[in-house]
Amino acid sequence: xxxIFVRAGVLSLSLVLTAIPLACDRGGGVKPIxxxxxxxxxxxxxxxxxxxxxxxxxxxxxxSTPRQAPFTYTVPQGWTEQSPDQIRMINLRPAGDAKxxxxxxxxxxxxxxxxxxxxxxxxxxxxxxxxxAALVKKPLLGESATYVEFEGSYVGMxxxxxxxxxxxxxxxxxxxxxxxIKMVGPKSVVEAEKAGFDAFCASLQMRVEGxxxxxxxxxxxxxxxxxxxxxxxxxxxxxxGGWRKSADKPMRIVTYTGGLDGExxxxxxxFPDNAGGVExxxxxxAKQINHTPMTAEEIxxxxxxxMLGQEASLLELExxxxxxxxxxxxxxxxxxxxxxxxxxxxxxxxxxxxASAARAQKQNFxxxxxxxxxx
Length: 375
Hints:
Layout: E1 2-7, E2 10-17, E3 35-42, H1 52-55, E4 71-72, E5 80-81, E6 90-93, E7 101-107, H2 111-121, H3 129-133, E8 136-140, E9 143-154, E10 162-174, E11 177-186, H4 187-192, H5 194-203, E12 205-206, H6 216-221, E13 226-231, E14 235-240, E15 244-245, E16 254-258, E17 264-272, H7 278-288, H8 296-300, E18 304-307, E19 310-322, E20 329-342, E21 345-354, H9 355-360, H10 362-370, E22 373-374
Antiparallel strand pairs: 1-2, 2-3, 4-12, 5-6, 6-7, 7-11, 8-9, 9-10, 10-11, 13-14, 14-22, 15-16, 16-17, 17-21, 18-19, 19-20, 20-21
């Protein structure tokens, strides 16, 4: 029998030979052989060109030094940071309560198995396949993650059962592993800090290569979404945390990508006068996403946001996106759009991407639109 284990980034092959008869045994009998041989092969470092999702597929390195977290994030008010370790990339103490913890790990294993592992920790029976399939989904890192809330008697590593505890958890499969966010502690504390947990999960973004994560929490705390102020000769704006600026493109004043692997694109453009009017441009976007044309009454009823000191309509459409100019096609996409009149003419801001990833970036999109200022 051959057993394969992965421990601390080292592939170990344990060859266990048991009760194998030896033909050359002089006594003609059978000798049991129980020999364990350990063969170790150091893990090869992943290529530098891999995406963030692909990097998650590698086991963590065989080192006593904790890995640098591949995330930026905002520490909720009243929470404190604790030292990370080999398991906990981000380690927080909600409300400064010594019995409550919240941490982020990247580990192997499927969603269902780990959800039931958490239920065991809370002294609860395993979920059935039907209960697992019905679990709530919430956005995380631009994707759709499984969300759980469990109450019970918590049994930690080597600890006695702690009654009246509560656990909040998020699980997101990424590459060959999964991102886990877990908060557990006395029920009263966890319920009081649930909004902080939600805000922390929403703030988690993939770290841009070369960014110093040590300063990320303080940087994010200074502004809820803004990671940097930019602008041109006409406007200034703030780019949300986790968004990456793309190369300049014709007819755009700026382009960003967001989401786990940059699958969501957002850009701003300025056109002379009214550029054909709001109705014509809304229905141009509707056509791109294979949506039925909208009437003037439907457009007038769109929700409004404040942008550049005025009310602007917020468009949100879902369908199969196709752009004849760029050749981009996205099955099951969501498109967000805002149009505002400016002295130069009309400012258009548009974001499009796979449905779950785009919706996870909605708050960043709104913050980006509302950050625009006229010079």
